Structure to design on (233 residues):
């Protein structure tokens, strides 16, 4: 015979909190990895991580287990954690994969973009132009990423967008943000984005592909090729 849940079994939503703390731990630790506040070759204490995050061991450990499964960290029993480095081969694979997906996404966006998609892309470009003078490379990177995400939203392919989100996380581990540290570099990026935007707005898939390819080639020259040879084999 089925019985109703005992009243007060989950008082104040207490069963939800550990998952909330796990998600918070996951995001904070992953963010520190992506933006290189964590360094490879160093063993970090889990207890120190908990202390800095202000979060207890269980949700932090659960977050670390998830990050280990995704290939970001390695948990060393009784010692702590270390960041798993990106190899040169992995970096080249990521670069190649991003090129394939971005070109496909820009073509599809040019074919399928609605007026709403076009207006959102335009608004993103205007916002980025307004922030060119800001000395905040991380903020500008986030606006750059938003513009690219909106291209995939315009493509109408949710799987491409989902794949690209994961790929951009990995890409951030191998690129520098130096292009966003110079006002000239920021202007170059906005101008390249503008060419992609115009091709999509004019529903020209071929031009969208060529403009995206030009942008990616410039991106790699600015932020990837200078550091690729420094990665481990």
């Amino acid at each position: 015979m089925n019985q109703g849940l005992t009243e007060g079994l989950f008082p104040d939503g207490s069963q939800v909190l550990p998952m909330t703390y796990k998600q918070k731990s996951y995001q904070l630790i992953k963010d520190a990895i992506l933006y290189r506040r964590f360094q490879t070759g160093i063993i970090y204490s889990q207890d120190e991580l908990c202390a800095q995050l202000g979060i207890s061991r269980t949700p932090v450990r659960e977050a670390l287990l998830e990050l280990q499964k995704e290939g970001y960290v390695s948990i060393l029993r009784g010692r702590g954690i270390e960041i798993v480095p990106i190899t040169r081969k992995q970096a080249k694979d990521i670069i190649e994969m991003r090129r394939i997906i971005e070109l496909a996404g820009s073509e599809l966006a040019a074919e399928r973009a609605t007026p709403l998609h076009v207006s959102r892309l335009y608004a993103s470009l205007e916002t980025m132009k307004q922030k060119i003078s800001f000395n905040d490379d991380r903020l500008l990177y986030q606006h750059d990423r938003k513009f690219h995400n909106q291209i995939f939203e315009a493509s109408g392919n949710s799987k491409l967008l989902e794949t690209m989100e994961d790929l951009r996380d990995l890409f951030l581990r191998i690129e520098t943000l130096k292009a966003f540290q110079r006002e000239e570099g920021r202007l170059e990026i906005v101008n390249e984005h503008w060419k992609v935007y115009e091709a999509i707005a004019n529903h020209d898939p071929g031009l969208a592909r060529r403009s995206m390819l030009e942008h990616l080639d410039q991106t790699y020259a600015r932020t990837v090729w200078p550091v690729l040879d420094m990665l481990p084999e």
Notes: The chain has ten helices and two strands. Confidence is low (pLDDT under 50) at residues 1-17. The beta strands are 73-76, 80-83.
